[in-house]
Amino acid sequence: MATQKEEIAKLVNTLRTWQKIEDDSIRNSSEILKKTENPLIHLIMEIIRQDSAMHKRVQQLIIDHFEKKPISITPEELLSFWNMVEEHDEIEKKTIKLAEEAMNETTSNLARYLLEYLMTDEKKHDMLLSEMEKIKKGMYPYGGI
Predict the structure, then answer these.
(1) Residues 6+ apart with CB under 8 A from 74
(2) For 68, phi and psi rounded to 5 degrees?
(3) pTM of the predicted model as reported, rounded to 2 decimal places
(4) Residues 12-41, buried b or exposed e (16+ Cβ, 10 A)?
(5) Relative orientation angle of helices 109-137 and 75-104, to the nearest 10 degrees
(6) Average pLDDT of 2-16?
(7) Under the phi-then-psi rule, with left for phi > 0, alpha for psi from -120 to 50, and beta for the rest, what region is 142?
(8) Spatial separation of the C-alpha atoms in residues 57 and 132, rounded to whole Å
């Protein structure tokens, strides 16, 4: 059975390998952008490139959590902005509803393709905020994450 230190080292190694693949994705999508002026392909490649860059940031945050300084948040800190998080979650729910309405209002394959992307992304935002609620509920005074 691996020790916690060994498990963390394996995770960090996996994340660093993944970051290299994200770099490849960024380079590849940038090359595709240079080869076409098609607005749809440009949009898709820009989305992928930006997502890959964000994935690298998330991976790095996890690495830094284990190798540099653990991430923590106090209940007081969380409470200082929690009402705004709840308001933002309501905004996300409205955008999901609008995306669903828009999907029902069109038969265009292109519009449906892009609306499906938007709806999925808005649902992802809603999930991120909903999961943050679990962190809040699981906290005890001065607990870490």
Answers:
(1) 141, 142
(2) -110, -75
(3) 0.86
(4) beebeeebeebeebbeebeeebeeeeeeee
(5) 160
(6) 97
(7) left
(8) 18
